[in-house]
Amino acid sequence: MSHRRQTCCRHNHLVRKGTGVTDVMTTLRDLVNGGIVGILVKGGFIMIPLMLSSVISLAVIIERFFFWRRVRKRGNDTIILQFVEAGNVEQAQKLANESWHPVARVLLAGLEYRQLSPATAMEATAQAELRRVKAYLPILDTIITLAPLLGLLGTITGMISAFGIVSEAGLGQPTAITGGVAEALIATAAGLTIAIMTLIPYNYFRSKVDQLTERIEEQATRLELFLCHRGA
Description:
Layout: H1 2-34, H2 36-43, H3 47-73, H4 77-85, H5 89-97, H6 102-112, H7 118-133, H8 137-169, H9 178-231
């Protein structure tokens, strides 16, 4: 008789556990079908900074995309060096002065101070230009780190809410805790999604900065050699 009662209790526990998982999945399905607004509402207060982070990230990504698109289209450093190699320094300086491309700005500094210290002038200008091309990247780096932490915070607050409901309603009502569990899962998913979608363009922009840095060093060295050859 005692064995039968234990078997019955274990069966009821498994049924309640299975029902709880089903209720969570049903709640998540209803949230998805309810649209973005429903997800934001059910995700809890932590969704506000998460959505703000996603908007800032998107704005920076768009700005940096168009910035690098302009940089790619207006590179004329090779033509500038060709003028210098041919001995037409004035024309090279005029062409560099008309361009805002980072490499051209560095070469312009070397041409303007070719009688004094072109290497020092190009080094100082390169540092200023690299600060410009690295602009806003720390913001993306911060969002990549912050978004998962905010999602984790949302998970904790959601579980706290779920356990609070359990303490009031008891374990006999598994449907009462699905709201808190859903909130925890939504916040975590949102934080990870924002971090992942920010990490990809961030690494792309970092690679572009590294490529441009190598380009500046290469072209500045070539300009120094041409100037030394002319002065020899």
